[in-house]
């Protein structure tokens, strides 16, 4: 019997504002779409947290024996700077500034995105479509929306008529907004745009002469609106009605609201049963922003090449840190917080290694089935990873008691305990055991410190070629040196 039949999963649905019992459209199958990155810059830590939340959700569905089709797109066109309908495409702007082809920008940052997610042990999605690969589908959806009387063409661009749509549907249902209030709080258009209403959004934009990314359409040479791509790709691979749509909290309005409107205008039905939104990540109590310097990239956590953290941290430590907060909660990233997380991670990994050495007892003095169900209860309560981690540390306590022979488990319970710990630590949370033995670590540290001293002497003797050679060869081995006021340190 598949595991999902014995577990009742409740999911917080942004559409209803309540936790609802999960019931897939097709028994044993889950269709999930998550808005992916816009590949015009290095993936930032907030993105990693969002995608990690859905990675764990994906993993838990697989653990429950569901067959999952997980679709996560790549936005490589159509996303205007500042998320509005007028202006310059983010990728085109980056291409112009760096004097590159737009697809060079896309390739560079798509590779970076995959490299970072691989480092953090993400499972790949079932399908990873791109916006540029689905221009034809987007044009067909626009045609249908126009035919249904909700889209209109103006000077080569096509817009979605929000006011007309709202006469028979509810625009703003997901975000809790009222169309009358939105119109009241929006300034008059003053004839500066082709839109009929301020809240109308672009389905297709006519490309200006300088616009690099453009495709032919029945209306003009141009490009699709940002919101349209997700409607096209989600419905193509999951159907007009599917189980789960996820993304960051910042996408709820206008992006996801517009998606719902497009789907309903095109197909006449609500597209998604459960809308899930992951919350934001702050840094030292403030919003992360490159402009203020309050920012750190995922790769900088792994290398230690930053001014925020005291040292480098492994991907699993960073992953463990993020999963200590519920995906719908704001999480603050700081040096103190990740140092504490590293200690907890090491305790957990030490227990996982000790678990292999526990001897079978003649009887069980710990109620393992009850503890096991508490682990499931945590994940069944809207994927509550911090509660799950608390239960896993109860498991760590069991391990220590078993090692000291203050408690015992018979063969069946010990097998169940070990299997459950491994399943939740490695399969569901996606952690990896990155432990280096103390003796190996000491030898490595001694060797690198010796090379740091040799490099220091070479620099004092003005032998900069040798100094650079030591640094560069250590980098090829995955060891990065960092020079500071207090001397030279290193990170793996």
UniProtKB/TrEMBL annotation:
Binding positions (ATP): 290
Stored Pfam families: DALR_2, tRNA-synt_1e
InterPro entries named in the record: Cys-tRNA-ligase (IPR015803), Cys-tRNA-synt_Ia_DALR (IPR015273), Cys-tRNA/MSH_ligase (IPR024909), Rossmann-like_a/b/a_fold (IPR014729), tRNA-synt_1_cat_dom (IPR032678), tRNAsynth_Ia_anticodon-bd (IPR009080)
Top-level taxon in the UniProt lineage: Bacteria
Keyword terms, alphabetized: Aminoacyl-tRNA synthetase, ATP-binding, Cytoplasm, Ligase, Metal-binding, Nucleotide-binding, Protein biosynthesis, Zinc
Coiled coil segments of this chain: none
GO biological process: cysteinyl-tRNA aminoacylation
CDD domains hit by this protein: CysRS_core
Short sequence motif named 'HIGH' region, residue ranges: 37-47
GO molecular function, one term: cysteine-tRNA ligase activity
One term under GO cellular component: cytosol
Domain Cysteinyl-tRNA synthetase class Ia DALR intervals: 374-437
Keyword Nucleotide-binding: yes
Motif ('KMSKS' region): 287-291
Cofactor(s) listed: Zn(2+)
EC number: 6.1.1.16
Entry's localization field: Cytoplasm
Bound cofactor: record note: Binds 1 zinc ion per subunit.
Reactions that this protein is recorded to catalyse: tRNA(Cys) + L-cysteine + ATP = L-cysteinyl-tRNA(Cys) + AMP + diphosphate
Homology family: Belongs to the class-I aminoacyl-tRNA synthetase family.
Self-association state and partner proteins as the record states: Monomer.
PANTHER family: CYSTEINE--TRNA LIGASE, CYTOPLASMIC, CYSTEINYL-TRNA SYNTHETASE
Protein name: Cysteine--tRNA ligase
Organism of origin: Flavobacterium fryxellicola
Gene symbol of the encoding locus: cysS
